């Protein structure tokens, strides 16, 4: 791999996930410094390209979440500027960030995903929210999750257990996106599987089992130390863990991802794996599952971050 001149970690942005991005970015920067990589952290603003242009050997490590960060926008601009970066290419980001589109792609690749309906805000106005909600729940049943079509960190996501709860859940969702994904809630064990891809064969990391104290893996449960218990590897039979690893690798390949990804899943009571979504910029905070899985697999976090950046430099 290439010798690294300098790494610029992109963190922050203007999405609701700004705080998580900053925490992830500073953790990556600290890890890179521990392995003697020159690194700086920069936000996405009007000074960014002047900053990058000052060093022809720079590699960018984007740790941006939400719109612009994960939808391919910033990476598209980095491509225009000819700056190498860690992570998936713009088109792959667009595929993965759009939850219904990603579900269709991984479903065609043979993976199981929960039944769902995706509809824009306007159709509830035009056709009548009450009648349309009734049709949706008659089709899917209860409980369901209402999610923004795109986004992360569980913003705008609501569990709906009664018919009278759907209207409020949709209003919360539409605060983050104009389209709602209403998805059947699968009961079972919540797990996530990271994929590390350094240019050879992608490797599935050990599955992380997620057990939030509140029973719901929301924003607070994700980023408050002690609010969620993690088990890595997940407490599941070996055959189920193998299926989960296969699902994560299949999603990674089907969506055209590279370098790293994280696929969230539910394992139902019969041991069947249901893919929920795949993330192209996994969180890297102290409570994030990707670093937990790296540690369980025996990887050094700083060396992995360095190798990802070096691989991006080679590719660039």
TrEMBL record:
- Where the record annotates domain ATP-grasp, the positions are 103-310
Q: Which InterPro entries match?
A: ATP-grasp (IPR011761), ATP_grasp_subdomain_1 (IPR013815), D_ala_D_ala (IPR005905), Dala_Dala_lig_C (IPR011095), Dala_Dala_lig_N (IPR011127), PreATP-grasp_dom_sf (IPR016185)
Which molecular function terms from Gene Ontology are attached?
ligase activity
Q: List the subcellular locations.
A: Cytoplasm
Reaction equation(s) it catalyzes: 2 D-alanine + ATP = D-alanyl-D-alanine + ADP + phosphate + H(+)
Record's function text: Cell wall formation.
Name of protein: D-alanine--D-alanine ligase
Q: Which species does the entry assign this protein to?
A: Luedemannella helvata
